[in-house]
Design a protein that fits this description.
The complex is a heterotrimer of chains A (263), B (293) and C (336).
Chain A lengths: L5 E10 L2 E11 L4 E5 L6 H8 L7 E6 L2 E2 L5 H6 L2 E3 L12 H8 L8 H5 L3 H20 L15 H13 L5 E5 L7 H18 L2 E5 L3 H7 L2 E6 L2 E6 L1 H5 L2 H8 L1 H8 L2
Parallel strand pairs in A: 3-8, 3-9, 6-7, 7-8
Antiparallel strand pairs in A: 1-2, 1-4, 4-5, 9-10
Helix pairs in contact in A: 3-5, 3-6, 10-11
Chain B lengths: L1 H31 L6 H18 L4 H24 L7 H23 L17 E3 L2 E3 L1 H23 L1 H11 L1 H6 L4 H27 L5 H16 L4 H22 L3 H16 L14
Antiparallel strand pairs in B: 1-2
Chain C lengths: L5 H18 L2 H26 L7 H19 L3 H23 L4 H21 L1 H4 L5 E2 L12 H24 L2 H11 L1 H6 L4 H27 L1 E2 L6 H14 L4 H17 L4 H18 L3 H9 L12 H11 L8
Antiparallel strand pairs in C: 1-2
Helix pairs in contact in C: 2-7, 2-8, 2-10, 2-11, 2-12, 3-4, 3-5, 3-10, 4-10, 7-10, 8-10, 11-12, 11-13, 11-14
Chain lengths: 263, 293, 336
């Protein structure tokens, strides 16, 4: 059994007396595509926030590649190889698409105050390499024509793809995606599905995605974890989870569960 | 002991001045979630208008007060129209700078209309100018009038927010503007009302205070910062907090001035602002902070 | 290269500035020198407010700290200007860095108000710590000499200011176009996304505050030398509003905009010098007018209407770009 790349151990989080996450365990293997689903308010985004360091859990630990990351700054955790996208668009609107991607390389570059302000050669070379990498990333997603578009001039769907590319360009080990498919039409879903697979296969990135679009989850995920009211109520392959009565109840209520399991 | 009592009393009276300013700031913030940086100038300008009516033109006191308050309301509504409504969705930098721009325009206008840099204009008090003895301390009745005024306004607005429909609509708008619109609240009107009311309070404050402080074009900012310190200390969304904060600042200033050095009177307010914002931004009685942060 | 593009216009301004003392009388050299000093202030402030999005009001205070620092080191300790000047700038930078720490937890209006209070506090110190700062009356600083160079003090100081403006302009331009500049904008546009890409918020906010402190400190030292005099008057709230107005009028987030805005507003201030009341009205009106009708500032207008005013956040390499553009026209595109 391969060791987990990302490991969540007994994480609990409370906000103002309400327990939002209650003793969650999660193990994601390298190269896996893990779905994280559950009804609204289940604590999924909070889970991502804990993993990426935005909230510290009151109890429990999170390990990335065997290293404990609880209590570290989010920017620190990012540097250790964790990437993330957000529910709402967080594209840098004051920059072009190309510059957004170059910012994705921030933690892979080192030029400091002196090197940049004096335009030293070390910095110029680093900057050229970064620009080149950004252009290649644009080619990978087929959006090279958008290089010089300002971030504010993109459609919603385009923004999402650029944000994913921006996260990937820094070569993270794990990427957390918060509802990446929101707003995608049915046609686009197939393309998106293929994109996620490409990302995993060609870049070797492990993905964890929160999604409400069940079709996507079922098609692309290797394993699915189901949260409800802060607890993990099921975990397994998409098919296992789909037929799990507790999961059905969590989403649809007791009556429908009864109706579903009746012959 | 006499010194302490004197300082406390003195602090109480200046504090109620600050409380009045703070009340205006909080009323606007409670409803709109922003701080009107022109508040001090609205206060100053209305005061000058009252002066012009009462002292220069001989209009009797009460009508002057009422006209000044009405004028203040209009100025506030104008500020809303110019600086707030068009910039509601812009970033905070623009909004703050726009209200500051208006503040400067008002200050310059007052300077041009009524006096140069050094002119301090006197204003006759509403009460008799004869000091009154409370125990062994001398108090000017006008100071008591200011204190009374602050309490009356605070009580009136507390009731307004809690009991009237308009007040509840203002609070709803502050909490969640989108939801408020969905329920049919005309938020643009509410914003207008809030700015106007805040400015009207400022105008009333100016007329009450003018006999004690004299009028000069630069007084706007000086009082704004004190009133603002009071509002921050009390919690920017709490009316009783504004009064509590104002009196506290007044007392802190008096004690610092009396026991440390007179120059510390000026600076206490700034230290309070810095300290509270860093350590406990919600202040003593406030809940959530500024909506637009 | 575009005829009226950024490079040419700034170059032209530079040439005029370099030649200025030969055709301006002493008073106008003084005004031109003031413009140079305000350009420095505007550049530093714009990096903090425009690029990094930190609505701070402490710049005028740091300007004052630079001036007082430079002046007091000369007057109290007998340091020569050439030592006191950089030291004053260092002190202002240190104060800027110190402010950034509490600023980390605050944003938006909270930050504006607390830095405003800090600025008032600094003003109070200038006024009341008479033993050190000489209080409201201010103090004279020793006239600096440029010996052994055969130039008068006003001339020498003017060219010193010009050289510093050129150097600090180039440094700022390089910085803004680099990964650091992009990090600043990332902090402004989305703190959470910036963090998720490894941008340390504290570090970059501190850097932005420190840079604005440094530029303000240099400006302050120059100002004290130019006037031969330091008093609390020059570093008050009106000052702060003027500086904010400069970057709004010039264009937030633009180094070139800072130059244009500073030049424009100092000139207007000078024209209205006689009547303080009108100064205030016009200033306020300009500020409100630009915010409502030209929020992008002069630079925003130029970028839209005139070729050659782009300010990319990366180093442009036109040759390379056309090659990759040609290559991708053949590849299939995913249109999300």
């Amino acid at each position: 059994m391969t060791t987990a790349l990302l490991s969540v151990r007994g994480v609990s989080v409370s906000f103002g007396g309400v327990k939002v996450l209650d003793g969650i365990d999660l193990d994601v293997k390298p190269g896996e595509i893990r779905g994280l689903i559950g009804p609204n308010g289940a604590g999924k985004t909070t889970m991502l926030n804990v993993i990426s360091g935005i909230h510290a859990p009151h109890q429990g630990d999170v390990l990335l590649d065997g290293v404990s990351i609880v209590g570290r700054k989010p920017s620190n955790i990012a540097r250790l190889g964790l990437g993330r996208t957000f529910q709402t668009s967080q594209l840098f609107r004051g920059m072009t698409v190309l510059e957004n991607l170059m910012t994705g390389l921030h933690h892979r570059t080192t030029a400091g105050l002196i090197a940049t302000s004096l335009n030293l050669r070390r910095y110029r070379e680093e900057e050229e390499a970064a620009e080149e990498a950004a252009r290649q990333a644009l080619e990978f997603i087929g959006m090279s024509a958008f290089a010089d578009r300002p971030g504010s001039a993109l459609s919603f769907g385009q923004q999402r793809v650029i944000e994913i590319a921006r996260t990937l360009i820094g070569d993270p080990k794990v990427v957390l995606l918060d509802e990446p498919a929101v707003g995608l039409s049915l046609n686009r879903l197939t393309e998106f599905d293929a994109l996620l697979r490409r990302i995993r296969d060609e870049k070797g990135v492990t993905l964890i995605l929160i999604e409400h679009v069940i079709r996507l989850v079922m098609d692309v995920c290797d394993q699915v974890t189901v949260l409800s009211s802060g607890r993990r109520i099921a975990e397994g392959t998409p098919d296992t989870v789909r037929n799990n009565p507790e999961v059905i109840e969590a989403y649809l209520g007791k009556e429908l569960r009864a109706r579903h399991s009746a012959p | 002991m006499i010194l302490l009592t004197y300082l406390l009393l003195s602090g109480l009276t200046t504090g109620s001045l600050y409380a009045l300013i703070a009340l205006g700031i909080v009323v606007v913030n409670k409803a709109t979630g922003v701080i009107n940086f022109a508040h001090g100038e609205l206060f100053m300008f209305s005061g000058f208008v009252a002066w012009m009516l009462h002292v220069q033109m001989g209009v009797p006191y009460l009508p002057s007060l009422l006209v000044a308050v009405a004028f203040g309301f209009v100025l506030g509504a104008l500020t809303n129209l110019i600086a707030f409504r068009p910039l509601k969705n812009a970033n905070i930098v623009s909004l703050v700078l726009a209200t500051i721009g208006i503040a400067f325009m008002l200050r310059g206008a007052a300077r041009v209309i009524w006096g140069g840099k050094g002119d301090y204009l006197p204003f006759p008090p509403i009460t008799s100018p004869e000091p009154v003895m409370i125990g062994e301390i001398m108090v000017i009745p006008q100071q008591l009038a200011v204190l009374a005024g602050a309490i009356v306004i605070m009580a009136a607005f507390a009731a307004f927010f809690r009991l009237t429909r308009a007040g509840k609509m203002m609070q709803a708008t502050a909490d969640n503007a989108k939801a408020a619109t969905l329920v049919g609240i005309r938020i643009d009107r509410i914003y207008m009302l809030s700015f106007g009311t805040g400015a009207a309070i400022a105008a009333a404050a100016a007329v009450l205070m003018a006999p004690l402080t004299l009028l000069y074009p630069d007084m706007g900012f000086a009082f704004f910062i004190k009133g603002f310190a009071a509002a921050v200390l009390g919690g920017l969304t709490s009316l009783p907090g504004a009064v509590l904060g104002g009196i506290s600042i007044g007392i802190i200033e008096a004690l610092a001035g009396g026991y440390i050095h007179s120059s510390f009177i000026e600076v206490s307010a700034f230290i309070v602002i810095m300290f509270v914002l860093v350590v406990r931004p919600t202040g003593l009685l406030g809940f959530n902070g500024l909506r637009r942060v | 290269m575009a005829l009226f593009g950024r490079r040419n216009v700034l170059l032209a301004m530079l040439l005029v500035a370099a030649a200025a003392p030969s055709f301006l009388n002493a008073y106008y050299v003084f005004v031109a020198n003031t413009i140079l000093i305000y350009v420095l202030l505007a550049i530093g402030l714009n990096i903090l407010v425009g690029n990094t999005g930190q609505l701070a009001f402490a710049n005028a205070a740091m300007f004052g700290i630079g001036a007082y620092g430079t002046g007091l080191l000369q007057v109290h300790f007998g340091w020569p200007f050439w030592l006191a000047f950089p030291s004053g700038a260092v002190i202002a930078t240190a104060v800027g860095l110190a402010i950034s720490l509490p600023a980390l937890r605050l944003s938006g209006l909270y930050l504006a108000l607390s830095t405003l209070a800090f600025a008032q506090f600094t003003q109070w110190v200038f006024l009341n710590w008479e033993a050190v700062t000489f209080g409201a009356g201010g103090f004279k600083t020793p006239t600096i000499s440029f010996a052994p160079l055969p130039i008068s003090k006003p001339m020498g100081l003017y060219y010193l200011s010009l050289i510093l403006v050129i150097v600090l302009f180039v440094l700022a331009q390089n910085l803004v176009r680099s990964r650091i500049g992009r990090a600043f904008v990332a902090v402004r546009d989305s703190e959470i996304a910036a963090q998720s890409l490894g941008v340390d918020l504290l570090r970059y906010k501190a850097l932005a505050f420190g840079i604005s402190g440094f530029y303000a400190g240099i400006a302050g030292g120059l100002y004290s030398a130019m006037l031969n005099f330091v008093s609390p008057e020059g570093y008050d709230l009106f000052q702060m509003v003027i500086q904010k107005a400069m970057i709004v009028v010039g264009g937030l987030g633009s180094i070139a905009g800072s130059v244009l805005g500073a030049s424009a507003l100092v000139s207007i201030l000078e024209l209205l010098r006689k009547v303080k009341g009108f100064q205030e009205i016009v200033f306020g009106a300009i500020l409100v007018g630009f915010i409502l009708f030209m929020p992008g500032g002069i630079i925003g207008f130029l970028k839209a209407k005139v070729r050659g005013w782009e300010e990319p956040l990366h180093r442009a390499r036109p040759g390379k770009r056309s090659t990759s553009a040609a290559a991708t026209s053949e590849s299939s595109e995913v249109r999300p």
